[in-house]
């Protein structure tokens, strides 16, 4: 009997092609002057702190989604043997070709159609006693953006921001995947914006845009103007809007 999920029952929420293209576009934007990196800065710092706190011995590490290129050199400087890949050259929903001491993922798990299967594949890819640390955006992310795009669509709303994972659901998925022990926690980042276009640019810089398989209609000039107006209505007395990024951290051992 196998513990793999039935692939025929997996809903297609995200577009694999759009996911690859988004990652490659963001990599290109990271080469421009002063791109936004704050979400990945936080993820990288948290992973390094967790490895240091657990006194993780150097070993083989599969690193997925190192958008800003910061984590790989940090690990190598600590003696880890790092294989770094992105979604354009590795499919987390398929079995892994080899095993690793560590599997580390940045900003990718929340855009998988078969997250339960992907977590099982990670567990099978870990050496005995191996550890996974995965960071992704959680359900408390982008409330201001959600409100602005609802205003843009008017009475005929469209799904423009994809479903996200909350902490209890992530914990349940980790248990279902069969990790011998697991920890799921979350933290919140807040960024202040005086301009809607800057928020959109920061999301694009970090590859955090929409990937829904059923893509919503593109914004027209008028709907874009309504989104900007909706954003303006959220401004606080200092003329800025607080946007929230919830980051989930999933840590599991084989």
Structure notes:
Helix 4 crosses helix 6 (about 165-175) and helix 5 crosses helix 8. A 6-stranded mixed sheet has the order 2-1-3-4-6-5, sandwiched between helices. The protein has 8 helices and 6 strands; from the N terminus they run H-H-E-H-E-E-H-E-H-H-E-H-H-E. It has about 250 residues and is of the alpha/beta class. Helices cover about 35% and strands about 20% of the residues. The two termini are about 20 Å apart. The longest helix is centred in the N-terminal third of the chain and has 16 residues, at about 40-55. Helix 4 links the parallel strand 3 (about 100-105) and strand 4 (about 125-135). The chain has helices at about 15-30, 40-55, 70-75, 115-125, 145-155, 165-175, 195-205, 220-230; strands at about 60-65, 80-85, 100-105, 125-135, 180-195, 240-254. The model is unreliable at about 1-5 (pLDDT under 50).
Helix percent reads: 25-40%
Give me the strand/helix succession: HHEHEEHEHHEHHE
Mean pLDDT across residues: 91
The Cα radius of gyration reads 19 Å
Output the strand order for the largest sheet. Answer: 2-1-3-4-6-5
- Characterize the main sheet: 6 strands, mixed
Straight-line N-to-C gap: 20 Å
DSSP summary: helix tally: 8
């Amino acid at each position: 009997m196998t513990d793999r999920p039935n692939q025929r029952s997996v809903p297609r929420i995200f577009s694999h092609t759009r996911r690859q293209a988004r990652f490659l576009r963001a990599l290109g934007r990271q080469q421009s002057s002063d791109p936004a990196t704050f979400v990945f800065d936080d993820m990288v710092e948290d992973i390094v702190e967790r490895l240091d706190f657990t006194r993780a011995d150097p070993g083989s590490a599969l690193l997925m989604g190192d958008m800003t290129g910061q984590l790989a050199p940090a690990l190598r400087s600590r003696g880890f043997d790092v294989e770094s890949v992105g979604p354009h050259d590795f499919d987390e929903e398929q079995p892994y070709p080899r095993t690793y001491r560590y599997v580390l993922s940045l900003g990718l798990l929340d855009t998988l159609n078969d997250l339960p299967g992907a977590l099982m594949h990670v567990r099978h890819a870990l050496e005995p006693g191996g550890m996974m640390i995965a960071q992704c955006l959680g359900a408390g992310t982008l409330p201001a953006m959600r409100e602005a795009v609802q205003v843009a669509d008017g009475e005929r709303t469209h799904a423009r921001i994809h479903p996200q994972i909350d902490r209890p659901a992530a914990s349940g998925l980790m248990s279902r995947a069969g990790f011998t022990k697991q920890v799921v926690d979350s933290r919140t980042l807040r960024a202040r914006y005086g301009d809607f276009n800057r928020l959109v640019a920061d999301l694009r810089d970090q590859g955090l845009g929409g990937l829904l398989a059923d893509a919503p209609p593109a914004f027209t000039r008028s709907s874009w103007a309504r989104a900007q107006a909706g954003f303006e209505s959220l401004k606080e007395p200092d003329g800025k809007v607080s946007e929230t990024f919830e980051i989930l951290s999933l840590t599991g051992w084989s």
